[in-house]
Design goal:
Blueprint (H helix, E strand, L loop, with lengths): L7 E6 L2 H9 L8 E3 L10 E2 L1 H4 L9 H7 L4 E3 L3 H18 L3 E5 L2 E5 L10 H16 L3 E6 L2 H8 L7 E3 L5 H5 L12 H9 L5 H5 L3 H8 L1 H10 L15 E13 L4 H15 L8 E8 L4 E6 L8 H10 L11 E10 L4 H12 L1
Parallel strand pairs: 2-4, 7-8
Antiparallel strand pairs: 1-6, 1-7, 2-3, 5-6, 9-12, 10-11, 10-12
Length: 358
């Protein structure tokens, strides 16, 4: 099936964790809710829309969220409850199409090109799904409908919360042209700075640069930028794709020696750990990724006998992996990443633990 005729829906639950908390505890409704553990190194898992008005965002340090919104109600995350609601939502998706690709507990791609329930359009399918989510879970979801995954994901954020936005094939170029390049996946602050130095601020600006120039400057990512600027995304919706690795990384403002980014490792470890709570599977291998000032990439990993059972254990392993970096002490690093990989089904991990524990 060609990319041009696909009908892709991206569904994104609105402030999911915070909304579940507000649904289940009436005293939280209408109040700024921050889902996070308290503590100097904790990060925000989710923020209600009342909290977002104060600038609180997910992945923000919890102490900063507290400064921005002193009246916020902090609620510790309950991933067991969130996963139960996520399964409910996924069952609704599967009534309409078998082509469902979950990205996390609160979002998924659906291919509605040939829906199981007869529908006049993908837009009508998205409306039906949102209505069923509201009726059966008492939560709201936003949806984007487009010819491919890249545009559908951007569109789902357009009318949040509780919104629907449709980008038809003939509208793709006009839709993308004014968007900031930061909307393109993989374009973070560092890459935005590099593009800004070339006079590229919008997707329209990016489209004016030839493929050869972008590849020469950014390698394979340059080719990806060229395709996204033209709204090209040929990735199919892939159901039942088991997660292989979850990670987070950060590029430093200045190159640092190995002993000077403990806090960054701790912060990235918590961000990764929270992301792993969104999957039913269990990760076994802790990975530390480093990039030197000379752009040399090295990784160190460790697979303990039993999977890391807590954020503290995960973080301690990530920090300890620095001891296995054998470069000279004078080496400076521009990037660090922390990941968890080698995922297995939870039942499989329990069975293995039982065998080795005998």
């Amino acid at each position: 099936m060609s990319d041009a005729v696909r009908k892709i829906i991206h569904i994104d639950m609105d402030a999911f964790y915070a909304s579940v908390e507000q649904r289940d505890d009436p005293s939280l409704r209408g109040r700024p809710v921050v889902v996070a553990w308290r503590g100097a190194r904790s990060v925000v898992c989710a923020a209600s829309y009342e909290a977002r008005k104060f600038g609180v965002r997910s992945a923000m340090p919890a102490v900063r969220a507290e400064r921005l919104c002193p009246d916020a109600v902090f609620v510790p995350p309950d991933f067991v409850r969130y996963k139960a609601v996520s399964r409910q939502v996924r069952e609704i998706f599967l009534r309409h199409t078998d082509l469902v690709e979950p990205l996390s507990l609160d979002e998924a791609y659906l291919d509605a090109t040939a829906p199981k329930i007869e529908s006049p359009s993908a837009t009508a399918t998205a409306q039906a799904i949102r209505a069923q989510i509201r009726e059966e879970t008492r939560l709201t979801a936003s949806a984007g409908v487009a010819p491919n995954k890249f545009i559908a994901k951007i569109a789902s954020d357009w009318n949040k919360p509780d919104g629907l936005f449709v980008v038809k094939p003939a509208q793709v170029e006009a839709f993308l042209t004014p968007l900031p390049v930061g909307k393109i996946p993989g374009v973070g602050k560092v890459m935005q700075g590099k593009l800004q130095a070339l006079g590229i601020a919008t997707v329209g600006d990016l489209r004016a640069h030839p493929l050869e120039e972008l590849q020469a400057r950014f390698g394979s990512f340059g080719a990806a930028l060229y395709r996204r600027a033209r709204g090209i995304d040929e990735r199919p919706v892939q159901p039942d794709q088991p997660v292989q690795q979850i990670s987070a990384e950060d590029t430093f403002e200045r190159d640092l020696p190995l002993g000077e980014f403990d806090d960054a490792i701790r912060r990235l470890a918590e961000k990764t750990w929270l992301s792993t709570r969104k999957t039913e599977r269990v990760g076994r291998t802790v990975v530390l990724k480093l990039k030197t000032a000379q752009f040399r990439i090295l990784t160190r990993s460790h697979t303990p006998e039993t999977p890391p059972a807590s954020l503290q254990e995960f973080t301690e392993i990530a920090l300890a992996l620095r001891e296995r970096v054998d470069l000279p002490p004078s080496t400076r690093y521009r990037l660090v990443g922390v990941g968890l990989g080698n995922f297995r089904e939870r039942d499989e991990v329990v069975e293995q633990a039982g065998v080795f524990g005998e």
